[in-house]
Every structure is written in C-alpha cells, then in structure tokens.
C-alpha cells in the first residue's frame, strides 16, 4: 500500500508529540512530589502511590490495548488514549486530596497505555521499510527530549506556578493532538479485524499485577501477604491459559529461545534497578538537602541527557558487528552508579550523585538499543508487533516493581508519615537499603546480558561469505 507523504508527516507529528508529552509528565512529576506532600499533607505511602498508580496502569493494560488496537483500529485506540489522558490531567490538576490524585494518576496511566500500545504500530503502518528507521529514530528522540526537558521545564513550572501547572501543561497539547487526529488523520488500520480477543487472559493478567504490586507495598500486613500469593498464582494461571488459547495476548513461543528469554530478563532487571531513582533523589535533594525544584531538575536531567546523546551513536555501533558486550558494559556502569548512591548522606558533595547519574545514563544508552536490537532480531517478523509489546511490558513491569520495592522499604523504615527533620535518618537508611537492593538487581542484569550469548554478527558474516561464494 502506497501512503502519501502528507499522511506520513501527520502521523509522525502526532506520535512524536505524544512521545514527548508522556515522558515529560512522568519526569516532571518526580520533582513535584515533595511540593505535593507539603501542600496536601499526604503521608509518604500515598505520595509514593501517585507515580506508582500511573506506572501500574501502564503495566497492566499495555498488552491488552496492543491486541485491541490490531482488532478495532490503531488510530481509534490512540485517540481514546489521548482523550482519557487529557481529561484525567485536567481533573488531576484540581485534586484536593492525595487519594483523588492517585485515582486520576491511574486514569492518566490508562490513557498512556493506549497511546504507547499504538505509537510504533501507527508509524509502521504508514512508513515503508526504507523510511521506517528514520521515523522510529525521530520518535525515540522525542521520548528522550521529553525525559530531558521534564526536570528542567517541569522544575520551572513547579517553582513559579505550582505543581498543578504540570498537569495543566498537558491540556493544550492534548487538544492539539485530538484536533489533528480528527481533521488530518483520516485512515484507520485494523489488520486483525474480526479476530477474537482473550478477555479472560487480559483480566487475569491485569488483576494479578495489581495484586503483586499491592502485596509488595503492603508485605508487612497479612492482607499484603495474601495479595502477593494471589498475584503469583494469577500469573501462573495466565501463562497456562495463554499456552492453550488460539488468540493469546502474549505468545509464549517468544521466550522459548535463550536469546529472547535472557534479553527480556535483562530488560526487566535494568528497569527495576533504575526506575525509582528519580523519585528517591527528588525526595533526597528537596526534603533533606533543601534544594529548589529547578536546581534539582538540572541534576536529574543529566541521566536522560546522556541517553539522548549517546543512544544514536550506540545504535550505529551495534550495527557494525559484535554488540553483545555493549549491554554487559552498560549494566556494569549502571551497577557502579547505583552503588555510588548508597553512600549519600546530608553532607555528601553534590558531585557524587551527578557522577552517579551520568554513569547510569551512559550505561542505559549502552544497554537499551543493542538489547532491543538483539530481541527483535531473534523473533520471526510475523510477530514483531507482539514482540514489541512484550518489551514494553518488561519495561512497565520493571518500573512498577521498582516503585513497589521503594514503597515496601518506605513502609518498613518510615511508615505512613511525612518526611521531615525528625525522620531524616530513617529516610537515609531506607534510601541506602533501596540502592543496595537495586544495585544487586542491576548486577543480575549484567549476568542475564552475558548469558544472552553472541550477537547476530556471526549471522552477518555467514551471509557475506555466502554472497561471495555465489559471486
């Protein structure tokens, strides 16, 4: 199918703007948490649930929404996602309690899942193979620009206009996206129209992840232990169901070879290890060190800046030959950076966390592109969409588990209290334990990356030899 260039430009504009907006919101929110805590007088558990509910909604629904978009239309699901995200942002801006803000953050996450489940699929639908890499590169750049500008621009908004301004920032962009979708994007793509949807699998998967997260964050309570057990049992049931259904939302065949299984595990480990870092450091810098949100933003932006700058270079390098050692080296740098953060206290030079964040950013850049390349190169082309959703699920599950671990540690060391001068030492203890645990998980990622095995370079050399023989 030939698609005109104007439709390609419109689709790339929509996807890139959405790809910028959501990471921008997430990184800005990390800065806003101490301000929200002070203004609304919420305890640290409710405070932690604000970003956690957003991430949880993404984790539990991105796979089902990806499948639904193939059946009912990718533009339709993308449009619904933008609408839900925009409306929930408006209501979140006028929340008058922590609990209400948690609820609207969850709705934001649902909209975000619809958007992220369809963005790459939309680009793949309108861009031919010879131009698809360029389009995906611009999309990835938009994601990291959002992550980079979030702490900077978000910090300015929070400092001068208050935390509610970061939610209101979403409204005009959401209106632009919806207007463009209605007036400019006329086509629809639903290549699996008429096929069945595994509702049982989707419900079991979603409820099981909710139970797992609640169980982790409430492990000290009897109900938390029960929820954790139910969550694990539900995940087992989900995998059994998916292995027997004709229309699964996740094909287990993806994990039947060594490269895909260990690559997925390494992606999960990396996201568990680093996802809670921004929240922990935001609380550390503002609540313990007394830094302004804008100054905190400049420090936190160093990590995504390194990823944004180095990822294209690393991506090109991974195409040149043996790239298995790039993810291994990346995970080692992430582990070293996390270990540096273990020793933070009220007197630590700010140079230490900055260097640690730079190391984590370089490590993430070395890890992400080659790991994605290895995973996608290890599956059949007919399941690229499902493979892409699987990687997204590893990312969201990692983010959710990272925040769940943080909440559990807060519950053990701080309880349901606000962070103030009377419990600074307890916060430092909880922070130390968190970084030690995340560094250990990152070290497991080093092992998983190593166990992936050789890269596709060998296959490339084999093709060259065959080509010469034919010549």
What does the model show?
The protein is globular, with a radius of gyration of 22 Å. It is built from 18 helices and no strands. It has three domains: 1-185, Up-down Bundle (Growth Hormone, Chain: A), CATH 1.20.1250.20; 198-248; 251-471, Growth Hormone, Chain: A (Up-down Bundle). With 471 residues, it is an all-alpha fold. Mean pLDDT is 81; it is low at 455-471.
Short structural summary:
The protein has helices at residues 5-40, 44-72, 74-93, 98-126, 129-161, 164-168, 170-183, 199-217, 222-242, 258-274, 277-288, 293-300, 302-318, 325-341, 351-376, 384-413, 424-451, 457-470. It is mainly α.
Keywords:
globular; single chain; 18 helices; 471 residues; mainly alpha; Growth Hormone, Chain: A; 3 domains; disordered C terminus
